[in-house]
């Protein structure tokens, strides 16, 4: 089973955390044909579920291949240092699970077009 773990920073503002949860709900409704069987979210800090919890949820559901997507626009310390360290711990905890970390969202192909398209739609 292949799953997607969307990792966000986490916020003291519950509405910000709720926005991530709502995005995952929307994504879950479009998983058919995506190559993913399941999706969940996790936060690096300030709220739950933690990355450890998110990974555990997916493994308990039967995931053997987990793609981790950093929901960050820039390659700050969380993307460059913290997330890789936490995924290394997950690899040790679950040696039979394959973990892949994608580029952070700001580095994804198509982001420039999306920004211009979105800005143009509101102008």
From TrEMBL:
The question of whether Metal-binding is a record keyword is answered with yes
Task: Identify the SUPFAM superfamilies for this entry.
Answer: Chelatase (SSF53800)
Which ranges does the record mark as transmembrane?
A: none
Keyword annotations for this protein, in alphabetical order, are:
Lyase, Metal-binding
An example Gene Ontology molecular-function term = lyase activity
Which Gene3D superfamilies does this entry report, sorted A to Z? 3.40.50.1400
UniProt keyword Translocase, yes or no: no
The record, for CDD domains, names:
CbiX_SirB_N
Q: Which PANTHER family does the record cross-reference, listed alphabetically?
A: SIROHYDROCHLORIN FERROCHELATASE, CHLOROPLASTIC (PTHR33542:SF3)
Q: What is this protein called?
A: Cobalamin biosynthesis protein CbiX
Q: Which organism is it from?
A: Leucothrix arctica
């Amino acid at each position: 089973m292949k799953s997607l773990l969307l990792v966000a920073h986490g916020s003291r503002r519950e509405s910000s955390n709720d926005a991530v949860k709502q995005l995952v709900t929307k994504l879950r409704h479009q998983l058919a044909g995506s190559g993913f069987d399941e999706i969940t979210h996790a936060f690096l800090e300030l709220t739950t579920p933690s990355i450890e919890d998110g990974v555990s949820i997916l493994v308990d559901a039967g995931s053997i291949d987990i793609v981790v997507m950093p929901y960050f626009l820039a390659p700050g310390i969380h993307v460059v240092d913290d997330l890789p360290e936490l995924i290394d711990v997950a690899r040790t905890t679950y040696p039979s699970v394959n973990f892949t970390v994608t580029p952070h969202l700001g580095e994804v192909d198509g982001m420039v077009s999306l920004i211009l398209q979105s800005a143009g739609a509101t102008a």
